[in-house]
Amino acid sequence: MSYNYLLSLVRTVAPIIAGWLIAQAVRLGVHLDGTILVSLLTSAFAVAYYVVFRWAELHLSGRFGWLLGWAAPPEYQDPQPAPLG
Prior knowledge:
This protein is mainly α and 85 residues long.
């Protein structure tokens, strides 16, 4: 596996984990009924977390990338076509 691929996985998983942790914290203080509601809140927090810190990384400082699991956005390269023959 390439470095950029692994980096993209880390940057995807970190906001999901953060969203889940935030949702659990909210759940401890607020009574939430239903597994679906908790799942939706977890997803919403994960998306909001990613959007806020990705925007901050692009527009304020690259250091916000650490909050997404890695200090720099991945650099994706076009795959090289396989040689024929």
